[in-house]
Amino acid sequence: MSEPNAPRSVTDEHFGEVLALIHSARQQAVQAVNTRLIELYWQVGAYISRKLEQAEWGDAVVSQLAEYLARTQPGLRGFTRPNLFRMRQFYETYQHDEKVSPLVRQLPWTHNLIILSQSKRPEEREFYLHMAILEKWSKRELERQFKAALFERSVTQPAKVSAVPRQTHPAALEVFRDAYMIEFLDLPGGHAEADLHRGLLARLRDFLIELGRDFCFVGSEYPLQVGGRDFALDMLFFHRGLNCLVAIELKVGRFEPEYLGKLGFYLEALDRDERKPHENPAIGVLLCASKDDEVVEYALNRSLSPALIAEYQTRLPDKALLQAKLHEFYALNTAQGEEP
Hints:
Elements: H1 12-53, H2 59-72, H3 81-94, H4 101-104, H5 109-118, H6 122-135, H7 139-147, H8 150-156, E1 160-161, H9 163-168, H10 172-175, E2 179-181, H11 193-202, H12 204-211, E3 215-226, E4 229-239, E5 244-254, H13 259-273, E6 283-290, H14 293-301, E7 307-313, H15 319-338
Parallel strand pairs: 2-7, 5-6, 6-7
Antiparallel strand pairs: 1-7, 3-4, 4-5
C-alpha cells in the first residue's frame, strides 16, 4: 500500500514543458541582446555621421576613435575603423526609411552587413530583410540566396499559376516561385527522375529551406487509391500558412501540357480522400527541368486545377544576366509611368 503523501510519477512530457520554457526564455534573451546591439551600432553610426556631416571630424578622427576604444577597452570587439564606417553607412542608409528601419533590429549584425553590401536597390534591401526575418535564414543561407539572385528572379520571373489558386489561395503567389535552386544535389547532366527523387529525399532539409519555412514534409511516393487502382504521388507536403496539402510531381524533361491532367487527378484524390475538414483544397506543383513560358501560359489559362509550373535548376543562375533583365524591367516601368 502506497503512502498517502508519496510523490506521484511525473512523465518526461512535463519535464519537456519546462525545457521548452527555458529554450523560449533563452531565445528571447538572445533577441533582446541582438536588438540592443543593433541599436547601439545605429546610435554610434548616427553620431559619426553627424560629426562628419558638420565637418567637425575628418576620416582620420574615426581612425583615432577606433584606436582609442581599442586602447581603453581591450576586451571590446566590433569597433574597428572599417566597422565604425559600416555603422555610419548603416545609419545613413536606413535613417529616413520608417518602414524598413525597424526590420534591421530583428536581424544579427552580420546579416545586416550582407544585405547592406550586396543589395543594389532599396527594394532589394527591403526584400531580403523581410525574407531573412520570415524564413529565419542563417548567414550561409542568406548568402546563398543572393548568389541565387532570388530578388531578381522574384521580380522578373513571377510564379506561373493557374487561375484557381489566385481565387482560392491568393497568398500562394507569395509562397511559390518560378524556379527552385537545387544545386546542392550536384546532379549530373543526364540524371534520371529516380536520381532527382533520391537526391531530394537525401537532402530534404536543404530542399525544405529552398521551398520555404512553412512547408512540412508528409511523404514520398505517397499512395493514392482510386477505385481498384493504386497510384503514387512523387512528394507530398503541407503548407502551414496556406493550410493545405501541396503535391509535387517531378519531371526531368521539359513541361508538357498533358502533365496537368495527371496532376489534377492527384489533387482530386487528395481532396476527396486525404484532406481534413478544416483544410483548404490541395495545390499541385509540376517541377520540371525546363519549360516554355508561352506553352505554360496556354496550358494554365483553361486549367481548372490549382496548379503551378516551376523549373528546378541544378546550377546557380547567371546573376549578371538577371540583373540586366531587372534593369530593363525597372526602366520599362519608369517609362510607362512617365507616359501621359
